[in-house]
Design brief:
Blueprint (H helix, E strand, L loop, with lengths): L3 H5 L9 H9 L1 E6 L4 E3 L7 E7 L2 E7 L4 E8 L4 E2 L13 E4 L3 E7 H10 L1 H28 L2
Antiparallel strand pairs: 1-8, 2-7, 3-6, 3-8, 4-5, 4-7
Length: 149
């Protein structure tokens, strides 16, 4: 399966050259996952992020302090999840489960470190996506805390 046309159609990656996208793919691994596959769990933070090529994944965070589920989302083709797992010591634990058979590109912390050196523009885009995910997680937690007041 060639991923270049797929990546070029995604807004997050459309501005990059073929060589930059090839480097991103080379630092990743493509996997097929069965329905029900658990990518990550809140008790075991992952060390990889995933870009869904086909299928759907449910991602959620259950806050023990608030005793409620925060930021439950369904991730589909072209979307990434578990971005915070790329950051050492900064992971907000989520559970991610395949809702149907899925194909995803796994991108590890090690791959991210290599990408920062070899293709900094793509690494910067991923940093931007991490910042957005952090902001969304913070906003969800703040909203839940305000409701408890």
């Amino acid at each position: 399966m060639t991923l270049l046309p797929f990546l070029q159609d995604l807004p997050a990656f459309e501005r990059f050259s073929e060589s930059e996208l090839d480097a991103f793919v080379a630092s990743s691994r493509l996997y097929e996952f069965p329905e029900g596959h658990r990518f990550s769990s809140e008790t075991e933070p992952g060390e990889s992020t995933y870009l869904v090529v086909t299928g759907r994944v449910r991602v959620f965070h259950h806050d023990q302090l608030l005793k409620t589920t925060l930021s439950a989302t369904e991730v589909c083709s072209g979307e990434m999840f578990n971005l915070l797992s790329l950051m050492d010591g900064l992971s907000i634990s989520t559970t991610a489960v395949a809702l149907e058979p899925s194909i995803a590109l796994e991108f590890s912390r090690e791959g991210y470190a290599l990408l920062k050196k070899s293709v900094p523009r793509v690494a910067h885009q991923i940093q931007y996506m991490i910042a957005i995910q952090l902001a969304n997680a913070l906003q969800a937690r703040n909203a839940a805390l305000r409701e408890r007041l």
